[in-house]
Fold 3-isopropylmalate dehydrogenase.
Amino acid sequence: MKKNILVIPGDGIGQEVTKWGKAALEKIAELYSHQFSFDEAIMGHVAIEATGDPLPDETLNKAKNSDAILFGAIGHAKYDNDPSAKVRPEQGLLKIRKELGLYANIRPILLFDELLEASSLKPAILKGTDILFFRELTGDVYFGEKTKADDGSYASDLMNYHRYEVERIAVKAFEAARMRSKRLCSVDKANVLETSRLWRDVVQEVSKRYPDVETEHMFIDNAAMQLVKNPRKFDVVLTANLFGDILTDEASQIAGSMGMLASASIGDGTGFFEPIHGSAHDIAGKNIANPLASILSAALMLEISFGLKEEAKVITNAVADTLKTGYRTTDITNTSTAQDYILGTADMGAKVLEAIEAQK
Ligand code: IPM
Ligand code: MN
């Protein structure tokens, strides 16, 4: 198979971890005789520094002309405490999502048994959890009109949804539910928000086309609680942009660490694959970030964009094998982790490559 892959490492630890997602793709290409060619582009703080624009046209053009994109992370601490900054790294990510029509963000909460003890939650509560989030990604309060009074006394962000925006992601989530345990939970705040009532109405309508899927509706506040009380209760979770952003960070603790979760953003064109974690400037450049989320994002790319299920499985199995051997990055250690098995980013990445190779 011949594919053009664009790599956008982005900011902070994105630079370090994306190397390993790319290396996993290269290793698969070598072992399975695929021809993957790679190009690289800038986005976020690094792009602002170089061009003044968080998403330069050159990056967007390359993105539109690629078969899939592997992205790292975005953001820089310097903007977090400067609310007045007009040009911000995150604008690059939001713009590329919109421009590529990436309306469905798929976030699997993949729990490796070896990491049951790495979570802050009790292993007995976690064991057997397997959740697939469908987060709407190009609408909601993220993209509604923003206003701010000149004197700074007032600001607003418009939360809005069109029926078609809810319908297209609902269809994707129901299709996935049908292939899994046939349970879908739609999360909203329909007791308060008009957009959520529209959301619920559309989801109810779509659910009629999937009579084999058991559909449940839950309020976001309750869902946030249930997720840590009894995560096994959930299978496919369908939710809006902001709720999905928050719930998936919460759910990452089920998997042991933000450093473990990969995501796929898809729509009508090029797919975009990235860890759910941020740029983590506090640990950037120290060779301690966990590269597994980037490596697992590469696996999602193979499966979802290229239909290479076997190759994707090889990567996921390699991650499982590496964890089984006992190797850990610092974010997924606990008190019983042997010191010799605590690895930096590069050593962890290299161990996974060996484990990929060992399966062939
Ligand atoms: C994510 C991130 C982004 C979001 C930020 C960086 C804009 O938190 O991908 O979850 O809020 O969508
Ligand atoms: Mn987020």
Observations:
- Residues 245, 249 surround manganese (II) ion (ligand 2) (CB under 6 Å).
- The chain has 13 helices and twelve strands.
- The first helix runs from residue 14 to 32.
- The first strand starts at residue 2 and ends at 10.
